[in-house]
From TrEMBL:
Keywords: Disulfide bond, Phospholipase A2 inhibitor, Secreted. Residues 39-103, 116-165 form the UPAR/Ly6 domain. The keyword Plastid does not apply. It is found in: Secreted. This is Phospholipase A2 inhibitor and Ly6/PLAUR domain-containing protein-like. It comes from Python bivittatus. One of its GO terms (cellular component) is extracellular region. One of its GO terms (molecular function) is phospholipase A2 inhibitor activity.
Length: 226
Protein backbone atom coordinates (compact mmCIF):
# COMPACT_ATOMS: atom_id res chain seq x y z
CA UNK A 1 0.00 0.00 0.00
CA UNK A 2 1.31 3.44 -0.89
CA UNK A 3 1.77 5.75 2.06
CA UNK A 4 1.11 9.45 1.35
CA UNK A 5 4.02 11.80 1.95
CA UNK A 6 1.91 14.13 4.10
CA UNK A 7 -1.04 13.12 6.18
CA UNK A 8 -3.80 15.73 5.65
CA UNK A 9 -4.56 15.91 9.34
CA UNK A 10 -6.18 19.17 10.37
CA UNK A 11 -4.24 21.24 12.94
CA UNK A 12 -6.15 24.33 13.85
CA UNK A 13 -7.69 24.56 10.41
CA UNK A 14 -4.36 23.86 8.56
CA UNK A 15 -3.30 20.59 6.98
CA UNK A 16 0.25 19.26 7.34
CA UNK A 17 0.81 20.21 3.69
CA UNK A 18 -0.14 23.81 4.45
CA UNK A 19 2.10 23.86 7.53
CA UNK A 20 5.04 22.57 5.47
CA UNK A 21 4.39 25.19 2.80
CA UNK A 22 4.31 27.96 5.42
CA UNK A 23 7.59 26.68 6.89
CA UNK A 24 9.23 26.78 3.47
CA UNK A 25 8.07 30.35 3.01
CA UNK A 26 9.46 31.34 6.42
CA UNK A 27 12.77 29.63 5.63
CA UNK A 28 12.92 31.50 2.35
CA UNK A 29 12.28 34.75 4.19
CA UNK A 30 15.40 34.13 6.29
CA UNK A 31 17.57 33.92 3.17
CA UNK A 32 18.96 36.84 1.21
CA UNK A 33 21.49 37.43 -1.50
CA UNK A 34 24.68 39.27 -0.55
CA UNK A 35 27.47 40.62 -2.68
CA UNK A 36 30.85 38.90 -2.27
CA UNK A 37 32.68 40.95 -4.92
CA UNK A 38 31.89 43.58 -7.54
CA UNK A 39 30.48 40.85 -9.79
CA UNK A 40 29.63 37.86 -7.55
CA UNK A 41 26.85 37.18 -5.05
CA UNK A 42 26.03 34.49 -2.50
CA UNK A 43 22.78 33.16 -1.06
CA UNK A 44 22.94 33.51 2.72
CA UNK A 45 20.60 31.96 5.29
CA UNK A 46 20.00 33.34 8.79
CA UNK A 47 22.59 36.02 8.17
CA UNK A 48 23.03 39.67 7.25
CA UNK A 49 24.99 41.20 4.40
CA UNK A 50 28.24 42.83 5.50
CA UNK A 51 30.61 45.29 3.86
CA UNK A 52 33.82 46.77 5.22
CA UNK A 53 36.68 48.95 4.12
CA UNK A 54 39.87 49.00 6.19
CA UNK A 55 43.04 51.03 5.87
CA UNK A 56 46.25 50.82 7.86
CA UNK A 57 49.62 52.54 7.62
CA UNK A 58 51.07 50.29 10.32
CA UNK A 59 51.94 47.32 8.10
CA UNK A 60 53.62 49.51 5.47
CA UNK A 61 50.67 49.78 3.08
CA UNK A 62 47.95 52.39 2.86
CA UNK A 63 45.93 50.53 0.21
CA UNK A 64 42.31 50.14 1.40
CA UNK A 65 41.11 46.56 1.81
CA UNK A 66 37.47 45.78 1.02
CA UNK A 67 35.33 42.93 2.38
CA UNK A 68 31.96 41.86 0.97
CA UNK A 69 30.32 38.85 2.60
CA UNK A 70 27.47 37.68 4.84
CA UNK A 71 27.74 37.12 8.59
CA UNK A 72 25.47 35.25 10.99
CA UNK A 73 26.48 37.60 13.81
CA UNK A 74 26.90 40.91 12.06
CA UNK A 75 28.26 43.90 13.98
CA UNK A 76 28.58 47.35 12.45
CA UNK A 77 31.79 49.12 13.36
CA UNK A 78 33.57 52.39 12.74
CA UNK A 79 37.05 51.92 14.15
CA UNK A 80 39.60 54.72 14.46
CA UNK A 81 42.98 54.16 16.09
CA UNK A 82 45.67 56.85 15.79
CA UNK A 83 49.07 55.98 17.27
CA UNK A 84 51.12 58.96 16.13
CA UNK A 85 51.98 60.98 13.05
CA UNK A 86 50.72 59.06 10.00
CA UNK A 87 50.32 55.87 12.03
CA UNK A 88 46.74 54.68 12.15
CA UNK A 89 44.21 51.89 11.63
CA UNK A 90 40.77 52.65 10.20
CA UNK A 91 37.91 50.23 9.55
CA UNK A 92 34.31 51.01 8.64
CA UNK A 93 31.86 48.09 8.55
CA UNK A 94 28.13 48.08 7.81
CA UNK A 95 25.36 45.47 8.15
CA UNK A 96 22.16 45.37 6.06
CA UNK A 97 19.26 43.00 5.43
CA UNK A 98 18.09 43.41 1.84
CA UNK A 99 19.34 41.66 -1.29
CA UNK A 100 22.68 42.95 -2.60
CA UNK A 101 22.61 45.85 -0.14
CA UNK A 102 26.25 45.62 0.95
CA UNK A 103 28.14 48.34 -0.88
CA UNK A 104 31.62 49.33 0.30
CA UNK A 105 31.62 52.13 2.93
CA UNK A 106 34.51 54.58 2.91
CA UNK A 107 36.85 54.69 5.90
CA UNK A 108 36.87 57.79 8.05
CA UNK A 109 38.84 60.71 6.70
CA UNK A 110 42.32 60.89 8.23
CA UNK A 111 42.97 64.44 7.04
CA UNK A 112 41.35 66.14 10.02
CA UNK A 113 42.44 68.82 12.45
CA UNK A 114 43.90 67.92 15.81
CA UNK A 115 41.99 68.86 18.94
CA UNK A 116 43.46 70.10 22.22
CA UNK A 117 43.17 66.58 23.68
CA UNK A 118 46.33 64.58 24.29
CA UNK A 119 47.23 60.91 24.77
CA UNK A 120 50.45 58.91 25.02
CA UNK A 121 51.18 57.58 21.53
CA UNK A 122 53.38 54.80 20.13
CA UNK A 123 53.19 51.57 18.13
CA UNK A 124 55.61 48.66 17.85
CA UNK A 125 55.52 45.07 16.67
CA UNK A 126 56.67 44.13 20.15
CA UNK A 127 55.06 43.61 23.55
CA UNK A 128 55.81 47.20 24.63
CA UNK A 129 56.55 50.64 23.19
CA UNK A 130 57.86 53.95 24.57
CA UNK A 131 55.09 56.55 24.34
CA UNK A 132 55.28 60.31 23.92
CA UNK A 133 52.40 62.77 24.20
CA UNK A 134 50.50 63.33 20.96
CA UNK A 135 47.60 65.52 19.91
CA UNK A 136 44.38 63.63 19.14
CA UNK A 137 42.46 64.09 15.89
CA UNK A 138 39.05 65.70 16.29
CA UNK A 139 36.33 63.33 17.55
CA UNK A 140 38.92 60.93 19.00
CA UNK A 141 38.48 61.67 22.69
CA UNK A 142 39.71 58.43 24.28
CA UNK A 143 43.24 57.23 25.07
CA UNK A 144 43.69 53.60 24.06
CA UNK A 145 46.00 50.76 25.07
CA UNK A 146 45.77 47.86 22.65
CA UNK A 147 47.71 44.59 22.34
CA UNK A 148 47.43 41.52 20.19
CA UNK A 149 48.87 39.63 17.25
CA UNK A 150 49.43 40.73 13.67
CA UNK A 151 49.16 37.94 11.10
CA UNK A 152 50.27 38.04 7.46
CA UNK A 153 51.82 35.73 4.87
CA UNK A 154 55.15 35.73 6.72
CA UNK A 155 53.64 34.53 10.00
CA UNK A 156 52.49 36.21 13.21
CA UNK A 157 54.05 38.69 15.62
CA UNK A 158 52.89 40.61 18.70
CA UNK A 159 51.94 44.27 18.58
CA UNK A 160 51.45 46.97 21.19
CA UNK A 161 49.89 50.36 20.58
CA UNK A 162 48.94 53.47 22.52
CA UNK A 163 47.15 56.47 21.11
CA UNK A 164 43.82 58.15 20.45
CA UNK A 165 40.51 56.58 19.49
CA UNK A 166 36.77 57.13 19.31
CA UNK A 167 36.17 53.46 20.12
CA UNK A 168 34.82 52.49 23.54
CA UNK A 169 35.22 49.24 25.45
CA UNK A 170 31.66 48.32 24.43
CA UNK A 171 32.73 48.32 20.76
CA UNK A 172 35.52 45.76 21.08
CA UNK A 173 35.40 42.11 22.10
CA UNK A 174 38.70 40.41 22.88
CA UNK A 175 39.48 38.16 19.95
CA UNK A 176 38.06 40.62 17.39
CA UNK A 177 40.03 40.90 14.17
CA UNK A 178 40.59 43.83 11.83
CA UNK A 179 41.46 42.62 8.32
CA UNK A 180 43.87 44.96 6.55
CA UNK A 181 44.56 42.77 3.50
CA UNK A 182 43.60 39.55 1.77
CA UNK A 183 45.87 37.58 4.12
CA UNK A 184 46.68 40.05 6.89
CA UNK A 185 44.84 41.09 10.02
CA UNK A 186 45.20 42.39 13.56
CA UNK A 187 43.74 40.16 16.29
CA UNK A 188 43.03 41.98 19.54
CA UNK A 189 43.90 40.30 22.85
CA UNK A 190 44.01 43.32 25.17
CA UNK A 191 42.10 46.59 25.05
CA UNK A 192 41.40 49.47 27.44
CA UNK A 193 40.47 53.14 27.11
CA UNK A 194 40.28 56.23 29.30
CA UNK A 195 39.23 59.81 28.70
CA UNK A 196 41.83 61.93 26.93
CA UNK A 197 43.09 65.00 28.80
CA UNK A 198 42.93 68.52 27.47
CA UNK A 199 46.41 69.94 26.90
CA UNK A 200 45.27 73.35 28.16
CA UNK A 201 44.84 71.81 31.61
CA UNK A 202 48.45 70.66 31.53
CA UNK A 203 49.58 74.21 30.77
CA UNK A 204 47.40 75.61 33.55
CA UNK A 205 48.64 73.01 36.02
CA UNK A 206 52.25 73.75 35.04
CA UNK A 207 51.70 77.50 35.46
CA UNK A 208 50.05 76.95 38.83
CA UNK A 209 52.97 74.84 40.05
CA UNK A 210 55.45 77.48 38.80
CA UNK A 211 53.58 80.25 40.61
CA UNK A 212 53.43 78.21 43.81
CA UNK A 213 57.14 77.45 43.66
CA UNK A 214 57.95 81.11 42.95
CA UNK A 215 55.83 82.13 45.93
CA UNK A 216 57.52 79.64 48.24
CA UNK A 217 60.99 80.71 47.09
CA UNK A 218 60.03 84.35 47.66
CA UNK A 219 58.87 83.57 51.19
CA UNK A 220 62.10 81.68 51.92
CA UNK A 221 64.26 84.53 50.56
CA UNK A 222 62.28 87.05 52.60
CA UNK A 223 62.85 85.02 55.75
CA UNK A 224 66.53 84.64 54.91
CA UNK A 225 67.37 88.32 54.22
CA UNK A 226 65.16 90.01 56.83
Amino acid sequence: MLVPLFYPISRGGQSSIQITAIKKVKDAEKSLTCRTSSTATQLCTNAECYSQQAESTIDGSKTPHDILTCLSSCKARDIKFTFGDKKYIRANGKCCVTDNCNSIPAVSNTDVKNSSLECPGCFEFKTYCEATLMKCPEKEDQCVNITGTFVDASGSKPFYGRGCTAVTERDIVLGDTIATGENSWFQISGFSVEKAKDSSWSVQESSTVTLLLSGLIGIQLTNFFY
